[in-house]
């Protein structure tokens, strides 16, 4: 799940910067998504360590009080040199915060590697059960491209309709369900994408 909408009146590309919380709309989206999941037999709730994701996960966990909210750095936002810059700068790049950057900053394949590591752990410890992982837009995007055997490249970042999704980019509080049918670690999962009823 992507976190809810963020309070960002200064229009900053916040990335991993601390302190960026959900907006009022984002809190509403998180609660609405939590309500959608309230009848699902969840086995675990994981979240990125960033505040906006933790707030979204907390709303879900509130509907599943028997579950402990768990944090994983493998789900965190992209590490980019553009953190703290105006969003206009990133928009002028078409959202491509990857081309021309070098380590320690991340490339799409770096993101796929860490998310795959998270998924392997989940499949090992929660096989056959349903788990929610609250994360970020690019993290979800590149995983969806990989699952659909599309190039995991920045130019595909805002074009998820080529993968059959209804949105070009994951909407806030949207759910992208990965369904694995075998125990093969190389399996490409089935994808089911659902925009939150409250993210309009």
Indicate how many domains the architecture comprises: 1
* Spatial shape: globular
- State the share of residues found in helices, binned by percent: 25-40%
Largest sheet: 3 strands, parallel
SSE topology:
Elements lengths: L23 H14 L4 E6 L3 H12 L6 E3 L15 H6 L15 H18 L4 E5 L2 H11 L27 E5 L10 E5 L6
Parallel strand pairs: 1-2, 1-3
Antiparallel strand pairs: 4-5
Helix pairs in contact: 1-2, 4-5
Characterise the protein shown here:
- It is a single chain.
- The protein is an alpha/beta fold and 200 residues long.
- It has a single domain (24-194), classed as 3-Layer(aba) Sandwich (Rossmann fold), CATH 3.40.50.
- Helices cover 30% and strands 12% of the residues.
- The chain contains 5 helices and 5 strands, in the order H-E-H-E-H-H-E-H-E-E.
- The chain has a 3-stranded parallel sheet, covered by helices on one side. Strands 4-5 form a two-stranded antiparallel sheet.
- Helix 1 (24-37) crosses helix 2 (51-62) and helix 4 crosses helix 5.
- The longest helix has 18 residues, at 108-125.
- The protein is globular.
- The model has no long low-confidence stretch (mean pLDDT 95).
């Amino acid at each position: 799940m992507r976190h809810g909408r963020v309070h960002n009146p200064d229009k900053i590309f916040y990335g991993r910067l601390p302190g960026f919380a959900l907006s009022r709309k984002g809190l509403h989206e998180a609660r609405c998504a939590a309500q959608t999941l309230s009848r699902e037999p969840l086995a675990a709730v994981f979240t990125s360590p960033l505040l906006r994701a933790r707030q979204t996960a907390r709303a879900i966990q509130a509907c599943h009080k028997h579950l402990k909210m768990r944090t994983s750095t493998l789900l965190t936002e992209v590490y980019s040199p553009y953190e703290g810059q105006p969003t206009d700068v990133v928009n002028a790049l078409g959202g491509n915060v990857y081309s021309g950057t070098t380590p320690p900053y991340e490339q799409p394949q770096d993101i796929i590697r860490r998310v795959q590591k998270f998924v392997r752990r989940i499949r090992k410890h929660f096989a056959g059960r349903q788990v929610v992982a609250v994360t970020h837009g690019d993290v979800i995007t590149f995983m969806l491209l990989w699952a659909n055997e599309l190039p995991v490249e920045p130019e595909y970042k805002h074009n998820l309709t080529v993968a059959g999704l209804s949105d070009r980019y994951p909407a806030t509080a949207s759910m992208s369900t990965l369904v694995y049918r075998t125990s093969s670690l190389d399996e490409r999962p089935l994808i089911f994408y659902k925009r939150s009823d409250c993210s309009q």
